[in-house]
């Protein structure tokens, strides 16, 4: 019965949505130790980020050929990595190399954003037993161009403090619909 149900179940193909920034369709994404085309950039289903949401991340902005507050972001990432006791984490130089290679290969030197993630590990099998964590951390560097064209044309930001974590509340308009977004202040 299960086999016949599996054969008869068809899932509709979801149409590919248009991207807010068309050039982001051709980006290369850093995963592990290589750059991959957007549609091929994936982590294993056995990665700890999939199994239990186990990762640290930073949002970095690129303005005028420079990564804004790079050292501060990396310091915070390494503090988080230590707090979560991630083993076999890449070095600061390895992470910087992944960032700069991603920037250069994508040709994005201004008005870009990198979501830099460090997952705990790709496991040998599913489960929470630490002995399954044999492969080491995975670096993910997802870079995309931003919709605005300069610092002066950023959406207006209003600052609020929530539980000792700072956020900017930002109203963004998409075809007349207003959406509230929360952005890590250190990535702006």
From TrEMBL:
A GO term, aspect molecular function: catalytic activity
Domain of life: Eukaryota
Coiled coil, from the record: none
Family annotation (SUPFAM superfamilies): D-aminoacid aminotransferase-like PLP-dependent enzymes
GO BP annotation list: carboxylic acid biosynthetic process
Cleavable signal peptide: none
Family from the record: Belongs to the class-IV pyridoxal-phosphate-dependent aminotransferase family.
PANTHER family: AMINO-ACID AMINOTRANSFERASE (PTHR42743), AMINODEOXYCHORISMATE LYASE (PTHR42743:SF11)
Protein name: Branched-chain-amino-acid aminotransferase
Source species of the chain: Lactuca saligna
């Amino acid at each position: 019965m299960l086999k016949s149900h599996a054969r008869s179940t068809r899932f509709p193909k979801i149409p590919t949505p248009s991207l807010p920034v068309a050039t982001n369709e051709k980006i290369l994404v850093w995963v592990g130790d290589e750059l991959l085309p957007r549609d091929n950039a994936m982590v294993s289903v056995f990665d700890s980020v999939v199994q239990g949401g186990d990762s640290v991340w930073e949002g970095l902005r690129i303005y005028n050929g420079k990564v804004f507050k790079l050292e501060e972001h990396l310091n915070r990432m390494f503090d988080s990595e230590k707090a979560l006791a991630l083993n076999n984490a890449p070095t600061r130089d390895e992470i910087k190399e992944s960032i700069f290679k991603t920037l250069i290969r994508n040709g994005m030197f201004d008005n870009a954003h990198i979501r830099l993630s460090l997952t705990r590990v790709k496991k040998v099998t599913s489960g929470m037993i630490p002995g399954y964590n044999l492969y080491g951390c995975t670096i993910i560097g997802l870079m995309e161009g931003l919709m605005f064209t300069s610092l002066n044309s950023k959406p207006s930001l209003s600052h609020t403090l929530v539980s000792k974590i700072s956020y900017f509340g930002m109203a963004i308009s998409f075809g007349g619909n207003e959406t509230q977004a929360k952005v890590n202040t250190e990535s702006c």
